[in-house]
């Protein structure tokens, strides 16, 4: 396994503070060494069980600790997952990500999720799940069931994480990520910005992500969407700003050159031009479909129109056929 360079906080700050044109040029140069700059990897999220989570994450609509009026529903049937996975494939997604609002899955829940994984794989799609904390044995079980990715985000710096949630700690996160890696699963690990954290917290998050060994294959960068009823319901009134967000994408790209850097929650608030700049910065993945887990996503028709206007397409080209422009020839 190639040794991952150990990043220092100062090195991350030095990157972040580069003149933007130099930072973007550096990021795009590195991006092109590993990826086709005109391709986007698309994933579709399916919330297989919603609400009632015992954790108290201040950002989250699904926590029982907050009064968010979210619809709570039990574990979805496998047939419904199959239906949603077929829809995801038709849209152009190459991966389906199943989320459940659990602290950790029980044996019977894991059994049901394994059936869903098999269903997704039967469509020749990649499967990712995010079920909370996982033991090594459970991680091996999911790997044996054909799972490709396990998502477990570091969210922020350890210090700010402790301010944002008290029912679990950073060590719990790192332990699950270690268990997932030990089982040979690819990790999807990122975080959230715009929660009122400092730039140092953001730099620490990126440093800790890049210093994971191996580095996460998929790195979701969420931009907080304030949910009414959560302690952060007014936080969106102080957004971090598009340029600051794009700087984070570029720094993540430089530090994790072979990872998919995913524009995640909050992308719907970016203009087409800001998204194009984020793609140039090395953001090469996003969620496709009208919903993320609980908050709205960008409309998929708008997404396809944007990619077409940029001369970009999904990385599983077979699924994405640019809509032909029918030119009516005057008779
Ligand atoms: N329950 C699992 C866990 O906590 O690990 C799965 C979480 S699922 C991947 C949701 C992720 O989306 C969270 O880890 C968080 O990074 C992000 N997220 C959730 N609510 C959000 C919000 N309101 N705004 C931005 N990101 C959010
Ligand atoms: Fe639960 Fe995950 Fe939401 Fe935290 S982010 S409250 S663990 S569903």
TrEMBL record:
Pathway: Cofactor biosynthesis; biotin biosynthesis; biotin from 7,8-diaminononanoate: step 2/2. One of its GO terms (molecular function) is 2 iron, 2 sulfur cluster binding. Coiled coil: none annotated. [2Fe-2S] cluster binds at residues 97, 128, 188, 262. Its cofactor is [4Fe-4S] cluster; [2Fe-2S] cluster. Residues 38-264 form the Radical SAM core domain. Its EC number is 2.8.1.6. One of its GO terms (biological process) is biotin biosynthetic process. It comes from the Bacteria. Keywords: 2Fe-2S, 4Fe-4S, Biotin biosynthesis, Iron, Iron-sulfur, Metal-binding, S-adenosyl-L-methionine, Transferase. NCBIfam families: bioB. This is Biotin synthase. The lineage of its organism: Bacteria, Pseudomonadati, Pseudomonadota, Gammaproteobacteria, Candidatus Berkiellales.
């Amino acid at each position: 396994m190639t040794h991952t360079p150990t990043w220092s906080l100062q090195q991350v700050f030095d990157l972040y503070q580069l003149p933007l044109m130099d930072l973007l040029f550096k990021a795009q140069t590195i991006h092109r060494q590993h990826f086709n700059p005109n391709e986007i990897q698309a994933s579709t999220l399916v919330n297989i069980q919603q609400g009632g989570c015992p954790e108290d994450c201040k950002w989250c609509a699904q926590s029982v600790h907050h009064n968010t009026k979210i619809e709570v529903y039990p574990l979805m049937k496998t047939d419904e997952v199959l239906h949603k996975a077929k829809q995801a494939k038709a849209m152009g997604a190459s991966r389906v990500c199943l989320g459940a609002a659990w602290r950790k899955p029980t044996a019977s829940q894991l059994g049901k999720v394994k059936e869903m994984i098999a269903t997704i794989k039967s469509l020749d799609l990649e499967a990712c799940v995010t079920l909370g904390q996982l033991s090594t044995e459970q991680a091996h079980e999911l790997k044996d069931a054909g799972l490709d990715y396990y998502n477990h985000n570091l969210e922020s710096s350890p210090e700010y994480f402790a301010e944002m949630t008290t029912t679990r700690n950073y060590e719990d996160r790192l332990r699950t990520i270690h268990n997932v890696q030990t089982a040979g699963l690819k990790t999807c690990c990122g975080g959230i910005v715009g929660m009122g954290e400092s730039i140092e917290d953001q730099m620490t998050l990126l440093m800790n992500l890049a210093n994971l060994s191996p580095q996460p294959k998929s790195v979701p960068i969420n931009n907080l969407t304030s949910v009414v009823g959560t302690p952060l319901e007014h936080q969106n009134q102080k957004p971090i700003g598009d340029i600051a967000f794009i700087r984070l994408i570029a720094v993540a790209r430089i530090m994790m050159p072979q990872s998919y850097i995913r524009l995640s929650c909050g992308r719907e608030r970016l203009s087409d031009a800001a998204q194009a700049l984020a793609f140039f910065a090395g953001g090469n993945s996003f969620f496709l479909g009208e919903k993320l887990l609980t908050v709205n996503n960008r409309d998929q028709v708008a997404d396809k129109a944007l990619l077409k206007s940029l001369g970009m397409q999904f990385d599983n080209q077979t699924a994405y056929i640019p809509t032909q422009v029918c030119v009516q020839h005057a008779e």
